Amino acid sequence: MRTKITLKTSLLAAVSVLAIAPQAMAQNSNQDDDGVSLEEIVVTASRRDQSLQDVPAAVTAVAPDTFKLKGLLEVKDVLNYTSGISFEEGGSPGAGTIAARGVPQSSATPVFGVYLDDTPLTSNTNFANGSNYYLDAMLMDIERIEVIKGPQGTLYGATSVGGMMRYISRDPALEDPRFSAGADASTTKGGGVGTVVNGRVSAPIVNNKLGVTLSGYQRDVAGFVDQVDPATGDIIAKDVDGGEVIGYAADLLFQPAEPIKLRAKYLKQKNDAQQTSSVNLDPESDNTTHGGFTTITVPGPKSFDVEVLSGTLEVDLSAATLTATASETEYDAAIIQDVTGLYGPFADLLQGNAPGTTTKVDVVAGSGSKKSVQEVRLTSAESDTLEWIAGYYRTNEDTYQVQDLQVTPAFDFAYANFPSNYSENAFFGDITYYFSDKFDITGGMRLSKNKIVLDLQTDGALLGKSLLEGEVIKDTVKTYLLAPRYRLDDNMSLYARIASGYRPAQPNIPVIDPATGTDIAPPVVFSDKAWSYEFGVKGSNEENTLNYDVALWTIDWANFQSPVSITGVNTGGNAEDGLSAHGFEASVTARPSEPFTLTANIGYTKSTLNSDEPTIGGNKGDDYPNLPNWKASLLWNYNLTLNDDWSGNVGGGLRYTGTSVGAFEAAVRQASVELDSRMLADLNFGATNGTLTLNVYATNLFNADKLAGRSDEKIAPGVVNSTGFFVRPRTVGANIRMDF
Q: By mean pLDDT, which of 32-36, 107-111, 544-548, 615-619 is the weakest?
């Protein structure tokens, strides 16, 4: 316990020395006469270009290239350095769950939205595993990542209940061509070797009229979890959790005349692995069942593929800008898992065969979504009196989820498929009125009409043959925004923000009570809505060598969608009451001298149930699982002059995640195992001559042996199955990049 307090106190002290304050990690130095000022950051979180200091919301802007040079190659690394954001490990490339500000990922409909520019990538249904997968665009040609915290229902619609993230891609070159290529190699302690190769070229086809960017990358992910024999503990296969990521993209920009821009993008990413990095745990501790990083799960192919095609027309009408976008996003996730030990005897029993007749049972599961979106919006020109946005949004999404038990010798054991169709039409807008150059108010609203239908098909000896056509579920939801802002002076502004976000209503899969033969599942999982109340202050010192951002917030989330247990049977539903969350975030970026830059972040989140919730296994006042109370980080960089041609840098970081619980106590056991706090350190050294950049790095420098997440599932009275994900052990590597 003493160690935990010391680590937390050290980070708190480090932040307080700098003063409490913005998460502008994308900030680049821009020398003034004194050579030390910080550059203004422009973001598009409010759907218009705006200085980060002027946005009445908590926004983090990150340049992914600065992370990649440090060996931090995944977007989860950025999120782990961002206060107020929780990333729950999925254990393979493209797998994981993102939550923000105490709004947990309850049920399978996402609570955290992901966009690529103006293209929404997140599923809006409960039936495509959309909360468990995400596009990791860190290796693409991305200029910055914007993380927006708090409900964003007005401008961004459904499933951005706790917050959202936008990948902002670089414009293709219309004048001077640019080229970049790089490679990275690393080794993980006790594991394998990881590599990355990537390249991109952007060039004008017709000068000042037509330009294109082509990019591609391949990443081999090093494994570090070994498969063991459950009876003897002997290693069967090493590093079974290794994987591969392959991606490529094309981006075309056409500007036939000054007021008109046409842009088309295409990308495809394939993520493959043989096993997740999940390990088997002792239910009463953090110890692995067979020592080391080990699993008894038999490897089986796992994949997540995503494809995006989008087009955007932008016309400057002088008084306003017309933006029309159309996109189609498709993703498919698949898994094959050997479950012979669990289901083999059962298959023999159903067939009346002698024990051992069934030699193999595989779970073949797949899920996916095909989502088309059209949006048209008008954005007023910049004004010191009145600014506004008005738009129309339409989406249609077809999803599927298939689960098939395939048996050898051939036997029709169990098959289930539940496809769904979701559609939405929405009108949205906001208005900002400037009462003076110091005080303004933004108000916004979105009216969404949603419709979803779910079908169910089953077959096989275990489930029986059925074909159910579901009823259409319709829902109308309004979300709101009110944000006054006051500038004390040119260097400081105060803002308040009241905002709401929601998830659409969902149909439910029937669950038949074997005792009565009746459907005990609620027919509809009702829409849930979160209300957020936030107060913040942003600013800088007079010399602009220090920028800060502080936000205090509280969120009320009533009757949220969640898995529930009814008479011992798990199904979907709504919490009987809800949860309350509150906290704060503070960050600062400082440049006390020309060569030295430091960013510090700290955040506190408390998310608890308002009442006893017997159907989800929680009691009043219980912390929601897998949401750490404290997060903090430090990032620093010191530039060096090596000679007339070469400059160097030394950098590093600390990322701290506080304790959390692994599950509600009543749902698992009398006392839930607590997930310990963890502190990870990163270090890097680099040199560049402007064209060639070399770096060496170490992530998790001190090889902290800590769990990043765990799952405790009660499978029988007194029997708990516990698994978890450990942070990646110390990884040491080097990379090289050429830019022209």
A: 32-36
